Amino acid sequence: MANKKIDLTVEEYVEMHKKGMSDAEIAKEKGITNQQLYSWKYFRKGHIRRALEQEAQQEIASTLEESETQVTSQETTVTEETQNNGVEEDDKGIEWLKREAIHAHKLLTEKEEECERLKHEIESWKELFETAMADKEQLHKENLILENQVQRLKEANDELKAQNERYFDTLVRLEQEVKGLRLYALQKLKIDVYGA
Asked: pTM for this structure?
């Protein structure tokens, strides 16, 4: 699974995301793990961001085009009605056009806000990922330092063991020498007191 090639394009990801699928659902659909999808997204974050922005711009342009078409259609209708119904119908048509223009402006503003929100969200994820990578690097360095310290402590422990063994051998030898000296001193004392 770790070496499996990910069969997913940026366009497919954006299309699936547009359909409302979460990253977990996309990963399951493509037969990969969440971590693999996360890594795939990280190395294509620029392409994904541009694709999402283009998608949002296309939606905005489509909405504006529909609004303009409706406005043009209504203008034609208003013009015909104006010719037939006079000044009162003109006022109604103008009011309707104003409402449509306001509605189109609201839609445009909402799309722009959504684009901004997506940009902030992407930046937030980017910052989180960079923080996680920095933490990982720091932990790796600390781990190496601790491993070096453990190695040095093991070497120091081995040296202390060797030194302890040398001291023990010296102690045994000295005890034997003391024992011999005691026997010699006792023997000499007997000779001095009792005579040969």
From this structure: 0.34
